């Protein structure tokens, strides 16, 4: 079935299309095979801000392929509908979402606003749309807990013009500042409100009874709408654009939307508690589900604090395997845009989730005994590279083997503090990790590390063999994984000849071995139907452990009571530097 609704005489089509559900995504073969294509677009000037609809644009299906030219034209029409601006803040993902096309969208925005010269590429069009205004633009990659982007990564993802752009820093008289701002999740944030204690208690099965702090980078919160200004027409309001990819995610069920703000440019307390909620709620109950207790917390905070205060729009993409070898992007690596959704609230996200499940969810008829996952240059740590475990754990058979080919992995954590915690505790299973946390204030102070250790543990159900390019055998085995030499395993599983999906090879004894290969775990979720838990189930963590108690000899940040993180932990003060 293909549904296509074009723009009508009125400025916008306000009604949300019925896609056969209300955001609850049932993962069945029939659901995954249904094709949906829906388009809503403005064809005239934007109405006043208070009358703007929630959804500007929505198009996509599993067979759709959106070209760069179509992408550019859509982004330009959207920006044109918003009117003139003098202050624009962009929130794209970091290099770990290189294939999201967020870098390309960011570049198109900067070119439309005359911030950088237009780069001539396959995304060119016969007409050149530009804004009558030339606003100042700042870009905060949504790092979350990740390490800052390197200069070469910025240039590869956003283009050379943006990477080399110098702007006037408002805080001084210099003119050599980069528009890129590095988010520091430990220090650069402000708490803008709280989600109720009851929501956190529900999400953690009663383990945590504290409010969840909604935290943002201070620069984002500075863009609040000045509603009492009488000169809003002559002084346009700041515009905040959150850009990114919707795809199954281990912590929030489905990535992006308000996660890009509350986690991507959020603070230590909010991030730590968010990750912990995801871990204790149970990955099997989260992955691939757009509606879940953690997302309810984020949506509550978004509707209560973000939507009334910010002129905030989301540009969401859904990416999938390319349907042909021909592409207008020489760096697509077999990936193309299947859907594009632009809106200001949960409606655009729900539509993107519906499509992502059809494109990115891989339901396997049988569980592989062996899975082989390749990690490209986006993955330099197990903190990032363990997507190879998160995205496959619901597919692999009991007693199976997961082999991770990781040429660029050189460390465990994304900063020294988290790295030391991973090395100290290891990926040793939920019971042992929760027990370690009970007796360790440092772990209680870094609940995102606890969550990561749980997510990265096989719970003894299958084995994990890491083949890193830059970690030693002793280092890998010290955290609970098996080790194998990368070059040796690349000869056994030749990434130049294997294909995504089922493969067979003949070993040295002449026996055939079947394995399932994944070239990029960031692009999907793989599962067998038997691995999904019912919502009424209680996670192992909640069954085996009571309340999470927080040590009292710490100084809490922003009055949160310390749940989810501390400004000054009792040990390893470098964790907050």
Architecture overview:
It is a single chain. This protein is an alpha/beta fold. The protein contains 21 helices and 18 strands. The chain has helices spanning 29-33, 68-82, 102-112, 151-158, 160-163, 197-203, 218-221, 259-262, 268-281, 283-286, 293-309, 346-360, 382-385, 387-390, 416-425, 430-438, 441-444, 447-455, 473-478, 486-492, 540-544; strands spanning 55-60, 87-91, 136-139, 189-195, 212-217, 239-245, 248-249, 253-254, 312-321, 335-343, 361-363, 370-374, 401-406, 463-468, 482-483, 501-506, 512-518, 525-527. The strands form 5 sheets. Strands 1-10-9-6-2-3 form a 6-stranded mixed β-sheet, sandwiched between helices. Strands 15-14-13-12-17-16 form a 6-stranded mixed β-sheet. The protein has a two-stranded antiparallel sheet with strand order 4-5. Helix 6 (197-203) runs antiparallel to helix 11 (293-309) and helix 9 (268-281) runs parallel beside helix 18. It is globular. The termini are far apart. Residues 1-49 and 534-574 have low confidence and may be disordered.
């Amino acid at each position: 079935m293909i549904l296509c609704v074009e723009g009508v005489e009125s400025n916008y089509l306000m009604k949300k299309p019925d896609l056969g559900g209300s955001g609850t995504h049932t993962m069945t073969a029939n659901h995954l095979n249904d094709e949906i294509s829906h388009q809503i677009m403005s064809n005239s000037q934007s109405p006043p801000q208070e009358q703007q609809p929630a959804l500007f644009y929505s198009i996509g299906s599993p067979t759709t392929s959106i070209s760069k030219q179509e992408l550019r034209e859509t982004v330009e029409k959207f920006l044109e509908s918003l009117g003139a601006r003098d202050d624009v803040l962009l929130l794209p993902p970091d290099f770990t979402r290189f294939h999201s096309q967020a870098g390309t969208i960011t570049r198109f925005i900067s070119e439309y606003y005359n911030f950088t010269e237009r780069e001539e590429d396959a995304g060119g069009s016969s007409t050149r749309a530009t804004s009558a205004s030339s606003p100042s633009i700042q870009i905060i990659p949504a790092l979350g807990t990740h390490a800052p982007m390197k200069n070469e990564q910025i240039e590869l993802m956003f283009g050379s013009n943006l990477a080399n752009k110098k702007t006037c820093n408002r805080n001084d008289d210099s003119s050599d500042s980069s528009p890129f701002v590095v988010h520091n999740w430990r220090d650069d944030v402000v708490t803008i409100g709280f989600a109720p204690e009851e929501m956190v208690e529900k999400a953690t099965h009663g383990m945590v009874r504290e409010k969840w702090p909604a935290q943002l980078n201070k620069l984002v919160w500075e863009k609040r709408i000045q509603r009492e200004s009488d000169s809003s027409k002559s002084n346009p309001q700041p515009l905040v654009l959150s850009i990114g990819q919707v795809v199954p995610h281990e912590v929030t069920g489905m990535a992006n939307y308000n996660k890009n703000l509350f986690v991507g440019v959020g603070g230590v307390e909010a991030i730590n508690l968010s990750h912990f909620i995801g871990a204790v709620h149970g990955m099997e109950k989260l992955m691939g589900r757009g509606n879940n207790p953690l997302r309810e917390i984020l949506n509550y905070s978004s509707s209560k604090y973000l939507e009334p205060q910010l002129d905030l729009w989301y540009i969401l993409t859904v990416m999938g395997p390319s349907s042909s070898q021909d592409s207008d992007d020489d760096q697509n690596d077999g990936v193309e845009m299947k859907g594009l959704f632009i809106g200001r609230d949960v409606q655009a996200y729900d539509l993107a989730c519906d499509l992502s499940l059809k494109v990115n969810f891989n339901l396997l008829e049988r569980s592989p005994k062996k899975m082989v996952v390749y990690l490209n240059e986006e993955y330099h740590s197990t903190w990032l590279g363990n997507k190879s475990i998160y995205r496959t754990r619901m597919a692999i058979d009991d007693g199976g083997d997961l082999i991770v080919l990781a040429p660029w992995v050189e460390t465990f954590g994304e900063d020294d503090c988290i790295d030391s915690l991973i090395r100290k505790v290891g990926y040793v299973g939920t019971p042992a990790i929760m027990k370690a946390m009970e007796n360790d204030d440092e772990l209680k102070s870094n609940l995102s590390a606890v969550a990561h250790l749980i997510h990265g543990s096989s719970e003894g159900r299958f084995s994990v063999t890491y083949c890193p390019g830059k970690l030693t055998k002793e280092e890998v085995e010290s955290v609970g994984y098996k080790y194998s030499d990368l070059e040796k395993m690349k000869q056994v599983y030749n990434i130049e000849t294997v294909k995504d999906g089922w493969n067979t090879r003949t070993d040295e004894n002449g026996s055939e071995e079947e394995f399932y290969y994944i070239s990029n775990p960031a692009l999907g979720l793989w599962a067998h139907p038997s691995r999904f838990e019912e919502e009424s189930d209680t996670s192992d963590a909640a069954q085996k452990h009571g309340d999470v108690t927080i040590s009292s000899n710490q100084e809490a940040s922003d009055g949160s009571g310390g749940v989810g993180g501390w400004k000054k932990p009792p040990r390893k003060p470098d964790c907050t530097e």
